[in-house]
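A brief tutorial aside. Many learners find it easier to grasp structure tokens once they have seen a single protein encoded end to end. The record that follows does exactly this for non-specific serine/threonine protein kinase. Read the sequence first, then the structure, and try to relate runs of similar tokens to stretches of the chain.
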Amino acid sequence: MEVLHSKNYIYRDIKPENFMIGMPETEVAKIVHLIDFGTIKMFIEPTDNGPKHIQFRDGKQAIGTARYASCNAHFGYELSRRDDLESLAYMFLLFLKGNLPWSGLMANTAMEQFRKIGSMKQAMTPEQLFDGYPSEFADYLTHVRNLKFDETPDYETHRRNFFSLFEKLNLVDDGLFDWDTKSI
């Protein structure tokens, strides 16, 4: 996300299906690739007075995949970098738990379901969502939910926190993914 954001774009539809890992035994084997740029938007716009962050607005059309959309997306707010990062937190939650608390939530219409999921996310604290998992995950979600609309996220701190967790759990970077045939 940091690379995309450094190019002045926000993604607005973070979900597992939009990430790919390079082909095994190639130069890009360990690189995460982002695909499907149909929802990206510039958040820094060129103006006569120089680059300017887009303005906050409400009443926007819902965008993104409900399971992973930020709370702001559910309630029609203009999205920014913080929303991409919040969506990543819901992906982490899926990877950790295997499902999301709002999976299977029923509604009469897609819009009603989108709003119900948003209400559920908003009602649950990061600590509740990540209960039973390292506090670094809840801390990450708390931080990104509290970012101001035009605030630059501290990507380095997030990277450092998760790397520290990796070390604290005595994990080893052997260069293999769980699905690599070499690791079986």
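Self-check: The CA atoms of residues 107 and 113 lie 5 Å apart. If you spotted this yourself, you are ready for the next section.
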